[in-house]
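Readers of this paper often ask what the protein records in our data store actually look like. This encoding replaces a full spatial description with a residue-level series of whole-number codes. For reference, a complete record is included directly beneath this paragraph.
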Amino acid sequence: MGKIKLPAKAKLFFAILYSDETVYSQALKNLTEKFGEMDEEVPPFRFDLTGYYEKEMGVGLEKGFVTAKELVDKSTLAEIKLYTNSIEERYQREDGDRRINIDPGYITPSKLVLATTKNYQHRIYLRGGIFAEITLNFKKGHVEFNPWTYPDYKLKTTTDFFLRVRNKYMKSLRRDS
């Protein structure tokens, strides 16, 4: 029998897709109030890699990534996703369509895990209607994609960002151990 050992905390991030700059700013404020200071960011970029969200959110979408300074327990990912869903609901239009989509996830030494409400064969159920998938793998200083990795997670800007965040996270783990 293996000895049970609790894993290290993880680096929390948020992928934020939006159609309204004001809503984006308010959502960042909400995330900061709940999870503390945000310490890293990919400035928002034009999100035109898929038309999946346009019917609901409109055209001219922007997407950005931010990370929370404080590390989180991995077991809280479903709770975090439920909270980000409540932010999405807070800012939805009168017709129920969203103006913002916030997908939380975390980074560990070996992978990037993304929370979602959508089930599929490669996703593991957490709780409360929330699933998790390994979106990226970190191996020997570079990023490896999975067949289901979203196109925006394959962009050089995005992979460079997540590698930089992972490296800083790894240094903090070594320093704290």
In short: The longest strand covers residues 62-72.
